[in-house]
Design goal:
By secondary structure, this protein is of the alpha/beta class. The protein has 2 domains: 10-21 and 98-225, Rossmann fold (3-Layer(aba) Sandwich); 25-94, DNA polymerase, domain 1 (Orthogonal Bundle), CATH 1.10.150. 43% of the residues lie in helices and 12% in strands. The protein has 9 helices and 6 strands; from the N terminus they run βαααααβαβαβαββα. It has helices spanning 25-31, 38-55, 62-74, 83-94, 103-112, 125-134, 157-167, 181-189, 218-225, and strands spanning 10-13, 116-121, 143-146, 174-178, 193-197, 213-215. A 6-stranded parallel β-sheet has the order 3-2-1-4-5-6, with helices on both faces. Helix 6 (125-134) links the parallel strand 2 (116-121) and strand 3 (143-146). Helix 5 (103-112) runs parallel beside helix 9. The longest helix is centred in the first third of the chain and has 18 residues, at 38-55. The radius of gyration is 18 Å and the shape is globular. The N and C termini lie close together (8 Å).
């Protein structure tokens, strides 16, 4: 099977939660003596502060924001480790996450079908490289892009335009694949096609731009895009 004529030629994947499974992070919080529910609050706080910094005109690396938010959350908790050691233990866990089960097969099928595959992450390219290498699918992607080189976090328009420029295509020749509705909305406003990965079988927010496609995983995305 091959990609459908007239469809976008470049598939752009968000990394955090879209490709990577953040579920193991709850154990990292428990291991340092913090409540497991703080894992979700932490990640949401990282996105909040990253977005706020971008809106203010700053460009701060994901790792720096993540450590700062984590330090604030863990302050005052009855931890089994010192604060510095606890922050290090949690953040190193983030760097060792697995991919979702549908990711390897989906990437291989899309690549075999003729699509160009890249990532565009608010995190570092090194984290994406390690994630995909552990899963045995790094070679399926031609480039691992980070907003650190764009100077603005997603969902700023500049981040998506940077990806299009790097790939040598126009935004409408790309489809952004993400689990986050805010990412789908930002990509759509920048002129990209979109595919929302609904891993939790949730409801898409009505105040954000609707996705062009809705799928439950990358395996289903491959079936749809390959016709």
């Amino acid at each position: 099977m091959a990609c459908v004529p007239g469809s976008p030629s470049v598939v752009v994947f968000d990394v955090n939660e879209t490709l990577s499974d953040l579920a193991p992070m709850t154990a990292r919080f428990a291991e340092v003596g913090a409540p497991e529910h703080l894992a979700a609050l932490w990640f949401a706080g990282v996105l909040r502060d990253g977005f706020a910094l971008t809106a203010a005109g700053a460009s701060t690396p994901f790792a720096q924001v993540a450590a700062g938010v984590l330090r604030t959350l863990l302050h005052g908790q009855s931890l089994r480790l010192g604060l510095d050691d606890a922050v290090e233990h949690v953040t190193t866990g983030f760097a060792g996450l697995p991919v979702h089960p549908d990711v390897p097969d989906g990437l291989r099928r899309l690549r075999a079908g003729g699509f160009r595959l890249v990532t565009l992450s608010n995190g570092s390219a090194d984290v994406a490289d390690a994630l995909l290498s552990r899963a045995g699918v790094r070679d399926e992607l031609e480039a691992l892009l980070s907003v650190e080189d764009a100077g603005a976090w997603k969902p700023a328009r500049r981040s998506y335009e940077y990806a299009a420029q790097r790939c040598g295509v126009t935004p409408d020749d790309m489809v952004l694949v993400a689990v986050h509705p805010w990412d789908i909305d930002g990509a759509a406003r920048a002129g990209l096609h979109t595919a929302w990965v609904d891993r939790s079988k949730g409801s898409y927010p009505g105040h954000l731009t609707r996705p062009g496609r809705t799928v439950t995983g990358l395996d289903e995305l491959a079936r749809q895009l390959l016709g």
